[in-house]
Automatic annotation (TrEMBL):
Name the record gives this protein: N-substituted formamide deformylase
Pfam name, any one: Amidohydro_3
Domain Amidohydrolase, first and last residues per copy: 36-504
GO molecular function: hydrolase activity, acting on carbon-nitrogen (but not peptide) bonds
Organism of derivation: Eisenbergiella tayi
Length: 527
């Protein structure tokens, strides 16, 4: 997998390492205890999802539901009446749930072009605590009861939140929801997540977790404890702007990391009208803005570099992207001659969705990785239509030039941003192969590399993973078809027949409390 044409027919492993690759007959391979004939199936390196909100995906999502779904006929529901029906149905079937959380609300598909307000939620839920998240995760609506639990003033507020007001209270919301999670829910959440990863051939995820709006953030410490004992490898990025808050996690981390979303969101999103552009949104006439002054972000980038911290930051609109790119560029210039060693982790920009031409040229010269989710723009172009409705045409066409950057050698990593999107990596790869800008589409092989070789490069773990080579970890997945020869119509339907992790075939989890207890007593590994 170092090159598309590089293939072999035999793979030998001993314990958790690859000891042989080549094209030869079974009879010439002596000394193995067991031989497995795949009968024409295909072997690929396991995948890495480079941007997952692990706590919500793994645990909190067990006690939430999706409001909207994409069907062949369009988005369902597409009106407040339909949303009301779904909320009322869920409340009736879950009478004891303390806090109701709903995801995947598609504002751009609604006839009313808005989120519900708190008074509507109060009526639909009978006065219970509820929060609804827009599909992009950057705006929400909250019932009166939940606003009061969060200590938010209801006077003069309709319960709809966006921008910084939404972003910087998510830790408090998460803490409230998590307080009702039982050991049984936790066990099922871990099992469901692990099994889903194995189904797709994902052996490693980058977890963007932690919230600075809560004092102690015990939940993220608990998550780190769990993650260090899971079957799936986790690389934790604590989402703290105050980099000292990430220090307690360093004893667990394979390499010091911080950032992601949370307090490292430099802007919002297009669908919530909070992405930072230099021009107004076409439907509101208002401009999104950067959440921080450039001087603050520059000081944090310099601090991270000085302390050897791999940094990650959310930037979607051109103004936010320019801000973080300029900060990385300035820090790089000031440290000329003090380059990190070959194979060191790369700091990141997450999303990088609407870069200026200047940012594109600068990023080609910087030791920075880009973490992207083109499955969202694939979905938007065909169903959501938020770019079409909210952005001037020239901005909608100013999306990341995937092919240009990949061919320039920029490290591009694929990811889901789960729970914003499904963890299905093949839907993201479909978004790369059938990109919003057709001339910037990747080949299936290039798309696969964004989930294999490139994440290993970004994490500084190329010696251990990313390709199937002698000496590397025996982490691979088996598929019926050759992904590199797949037609676009087939890509979204791919999955792994099974996954081998650390030289052992992954076994499905049952999600019992006893299984959870045994996992918690395992020897911890680096995250």
């Amino acid at each position: 997998m170092r090159k598309e044409q590089e293939t072999f027919t035999a793979l030998g492993i001993e314990e958790d390492r690859i000891i042989f690759t080549g094209s030869t007959e079974k009879e010439t391979l002596k000394g193995y205890d067991r031989y497995v004939d795949l009968e024409g199936m295909h072997v690929f390196p396991t995948l890495t999802d480079s941007h997952v909100h692990l706590l919500y995906t793994m645990i909190l999502a067990v006690s939430s539901f999706n409001l909207c779904e994409v069907t062949d006929g369009g988005i369902v529901p597409d009106s407040m009446d339909g949303v009301e029906d779904r909320v009322r149905d869920y409340c009736r079937s879950h009478p004891k749930q303390k806090i109701i959380s709903a995801n995947q609300y598609i504002l751009s598909a609604m006839k009313e072009k808005r989120l519900p307000d708190r008074h509507e939620l109060d009526e639909w839920t009978g006065g219970r605590c509820m929060i609804i998240y827009n599909i992009d995760g950057h705006s929400s609506c909250i019932s009166t009861a939940l606003m009061k639990k969060l200590g938010l003033s209801c006077e003069g507020h309709d319960g709809r939140f966006s921008g910084e007001e939404h972003e910087f209270m998510q830790g408090k919301v998460t803490n409230l929801i998590a307080a009702s999670v039982t050991p049984g829910v936790l066990a099922r959440g871990i099992a469901n997540f692990s099994n889903l990863c194995a189904r797709y051939g994902i052996s490693r995820v980058c977890a963007m977790d932690g919230n600075e709006d809560v004092k102690n953030d015990i939940l993220t410490r608990l998550l780190a404890f769990i993650a260090s004992r899971m079957d799936i490898d986790v690389r934790l990025f604590p989402q703290y702007l105050d980099l000292e808050r990430a220090r307690p996690f360093r004893r667990l981390q394979k390499y010091p990391r911080a950032g992601g979303c949370g307090s490292w969101e430099l802007d919002g999103s297009v669908g919530s009208h909070s992405a930072a552009f230099y021009v107004p949104f076409r439907d509101t006439g208002e401009k999104g803005h950067c959440y921080y002054e450039k001087s603050l972000i520059l000081s944090k980038v310099k601090e991270a570099r000085q302390k050897g911290i791999q940094l990650s930051s959310h930037a979607i609109g051109e103004a936010a992207i320019d801000q973080i790119v300029d900060c990385y560029e300035q820090a790089e210039k000031e440290n000329a001659g003090q380059q990190d060693g070959a194979g060191a982790p790369l700091s990141r920009i997450d999303h990088f969705e609407f870069p200026s031409r200047e940012a594109v040229e600068k990023i080609k010269k910087l030791p920075v990785a880009l973490t992207v989710q083109p499955g969202f723009s694939w979905l938007d172009k065909r169903y959501l239509k938020s770019y079409e409705q909210f952005l001037p045409k020239e901005k909608a066409e100013q999306q990341i030039p995937l092919k240009e950057l990949a061919e320039a050698g920029v490290c591009i990593c694929g990811s889901s941003d789960s729970p914003v999107q499904s963890m299905n990596p093949y839907e993201q790869m479909l978004g790369m192969v059938e990109f919003f800008l057709p001339q910037q589409s990747l080949t299936p092989y290039q798309a696969l590399c964004t989930y294999t070789r490139e994440p290993a490069r970004m994490l500084g773990e190329e010696k251990d993973s990313g390709t199937l080579e002698v000496g590397k970890k025996a982490d691979f997945c088996v598929m019926k078809k050759d992904f590199c020869r797949a037609e676009p119509g087939e890509i979204g339907e791919f999955c792994a027949e099974y996954m081998v992790k650390d030289g052992k075939r992954y076994e499905q989890k049952k999600g019992t409390v006893w299984e959870l207890v045994k996992m918690l007593f395992r020897r911890k590994k680096k995250i």
